[in-house]
Amino acid sequence: MVNKVAITGIGIVAPSGIGRRQFWANIKAGRSFVKKITRFEATKYPSHIAGQIDELEKYGNISERLLKKMDAFSHMALIASELALEDAGIDIKKEDPNLVGIFLGNAIGGWLYAETELRDLYIEGREGVSPYMASAWFPAAPQGQVSIYYGIKGFSKTVVADRASSLQALGYARKTLAKGKLNMILAGGMEAPVTPYALLCCNTYGGLSQDNEHPEQAYRPFDRKRSGFVIGEGAGIVVLESQERARARQAKIYACISGYGTSCDGKDRISPDKDSAELTRAIRMALQDANCPPAEIDYISLDGVAMDIWDRTEIDAIKQVFGARSKEIPLSCPKSMFGNLLGASGAIDMIITVLAMEHSLLPPTINLDEPDFSGFNFVTKEARPQEIRKALIISRGRGGINSALVVEKA
Amino acid sequence: METKEKIRDILVQLLKVKPEELKDDVTLIDGIGVDSTEMVEAVIALEKAFATKLSPKEITKNSTINEIAQIINSKIG
């Protein structure tokens, strides 16, 4: 079995930028893209700030005829797929369609489309509902749209595992490629939660920052004054293939995914387990899978929900795995700049980590002015130069879903 | 407006296709590669526009604009 899988193309659609160059320029500078929500009247919601993407229709080459049949989250997935394939230099028409797969993750589905149509259902009756509703809202819709758009016919999967969805999708994709079942996979995730109903659910959950007057400072993971996260929308999709194939076609290999681990707390419907045992086990599983001793990890991308128990248990798990070194390893949570993309967050974190490796710059956490955990090597404010050979990415979902991925330089 | 012209306008507006792709004697599947969900939407829109009941069995992917106009004209007299 091939253990390491090459990342050869990056497609990113995020509040901080569309396309990896614009995105990375904003990440390394530590710029915030969290703003008051302008898409709809949101001021009555306790939290009404988010990382939004405006004028999505300006990007990509998708026809109006197709666009009217899909929710924003599928649109984002299509743009990110197009960017990833272009970046990888892959002409999908020349691939064997049976040996190309798609592995995507998201947590909530396409609510902007669903909400509009449900309103019409109650006002106009069933004839008021668009027939596309049936295929637009559900979580596997982006997988379907991307597969139809590119004629992809290989084994594919949509993962729904709350905020850990896309990191899990990447883990499954690597495993599938490692078994030699496919030639290449488009893997990652997308989420579009900036809609009235989705925002309401996120508010009801109670994990959102209500610092509406200071959107740019609202998301402050691991800070003493943290008060929850901020939602964001977007998609992060990469091209994965075996290193042999990537080398044979002389592709640029950004980095390799070398290990993955996942576990469930099995304790509470929402909160993580207080003793971090299962998160610790997931991280150890990923390191073991990567054949990587804890001493070799030189950057950790944090999940950083910015709620007391989540941040505390994440730091606890790092302490348990890395011991004395846990205070030396650079840690950061770049999503503080553009919001938590829920089911797409893990894929975006992996993309940032891979770009950080490429540029030998540690990406920052913003708003981490007074760390609540003393003595840790948090990267704050702006990017800091350092070579990264092996990195760990942590992504967690409600109800105790733990995922960890190891990426390393090719 | 002639029934055919009205049908063409509705389909162009609804399905976001070009008017020249909808020729009078070419089926919807051959002309614009219409899919089944688009057909559901098209039948509902035509029913509303002509204030008449149409069955999805009468108007299908294999209908041409000429045929659709004939069916509608026979109903609205």
What would you say this structure looks like, in words?
The complex is a heterodimer of chains A (about 400) and B (about 80). Chain A has about 400 residues and is an alpha/beta fold. Chain A has 2 domains: about 5-250, 3-Layer(aba) Sandwich (Peroxisomal Thiolase, Chain A, domain 1); about 260-410, Peroxisomal Thiolase, Chain A, domain 1. Helix content of chain A is about 35%, strand content about 20%. Chain A is built from 13 helices and 16 strands. In chain A, α12 (about 310-320) links the parallel β11 (about 300) and β12. In chain A, α3 (about 70-90) packs across α6 (about 140-150), α7 (about 165-180) crosses α13 (about 345-360) and α11 packs across α12 (about 310-320). In chain A, about 55% of the residues are buried. Chain B has about 80 residues and is mostly helical. Chain B has a single domain (about 5-70), classed as Non-ribosomal Peptide Synthetase Peptidyl Carrier Protein, Chain A (Orthogonal Bundle). In chain B, about 60% of the residues lie in helices and about 0% in strands. Chain B is built from 4 helices and no strands. Chain B has helices spanning about 5-15, 30, 35-50, 65-75. The longest helix of chain B is centred in the middle third of the chain and has 15 residues, at about 35-50. The mean pLDDT of chain B is about 90. Classes of the chains: A alpha/beta (about 400), B mainly alpha (about 80).
